[in-house]
Amino acid sequence: MNSYRSVTALLCAAALTACSKDALQDITGPASGGSIRFFNFGVNAPGVNFYANDAKLTAITSATGAEAVLGTTYGTAGNAGLYSAVAAGSYTFAGKIAAATDKDVAVSKVTATVADGKYYSFFMSGFYDAAVKSVEGFVVEDALPAQGDYNVAYVRFVNAISNSSPMILYAKNTSTGTEIAVGASVPYKSGGAFTALPTGVYDLSTRNVGSATSAIARTGVAFIAGRAVTIGARGDMTVVSTTATNRPMLDVTLNR
């Protein structure tokens, strides 16, 4: 999993003290702290840079080498979906406007505690209110299996659509036709547990509890042995267009 952490790190005061020139460092154990990554799934939200307290953890470099004003735009993940390492502790995670206008205005804030050795995802979600420059957000723990089975893939579902009903994710193997429910129903601002699936190519769909009708669909998603994947729902459930940017969609992001 360390290969999926970004080099960004927050160092606590105690850690700085321990790094004096006279300190002996133990490099035999695992690195302390946790990891977090960021998604802009807030419909109509501006591009943002993500912060942990006052430390910027995501940004985009322009061709000139200066920070671009684009930021992490709607429907994308900060740092290409990689994790950022942070010291254990309580944080206010925020998405702040990247553009020159309203630069660094925090449009979404979530307070969460990071534990040693654990992984988390921050989602900007719901609908952006341009009048007050605000959008909802939430943090879920990415509770990856402690001992991975390299004969299967692990898949979980996160619901970031504020006007959705609780939904169940289904995965249908395109070769065998076998359909599997990926965990239980997941309400808005929640994530399900990682579920083991045989490797293969799947057609995905979500359904409201008790319904046989597909609410959101995505076809031809390959799940690879030993990998853990998050399927994230974003958009507006009232949109019926198949091309609109804010239509309900299923995103696929690798955890490991």
Quick description:
This protein has 256 residues and is mainly β. The protein has one helix at 13-18; strands spanning 5-9, 34-40, 48-52, 55-56, 76-77, 83-86, 89-97, 106-114, 119-129, 134-141, 152-159, 167-173, 179-186, 190-191, 195-198, 200-208, 216-223, 228-234, 249-254.
- The class by helix and strand makeup works out as mainly beta
Specify the overall morphology.
globular
Distinct helical segment count: 1
- What's the total number of strands? 19
Biggest sheet: strands, sense, closure?
6 strands, mixed
What's the overall average pLDDT, rounded?
89
What is the terminal separation in angstroms?
6 Å
How would you describe this structure to a colleague?
This protein folds into 2 domains: about 1-140, no CATH class; about 145-255, Immunoglobulin-like, CATH 2.60.40.2890. The chain has one helix at about 15-20, and strands spanning about 5-10, 35-40, 50, 55, 75, 85, 90-95, 105-115, 120-130, 135-140, 150-160, 165-175, 180-185, 190, 195-200, 200-210, 215-225, 230-235, 250-255. Residues about 1-30 have low confidence and may be disordered. It is globular and about 50 Å long. Helices cover about 0% and strands about 45% of the residues. Strands 1, 2, 5, 6, 9 and 10 form a 6-stranded mixed sheet that branches. It starts with a strand and ends with a strand. With about 260 residues, it is mainly β.
Give me some keywords for this one:
256 residues; mainly beta; Immunoglobulin-like; 2 domains; 6-stranded mixed β-sheet; 5-stranded mixed β-sheet; 19 strands; 2% helix; 47% strand; globular; disordered N terminus
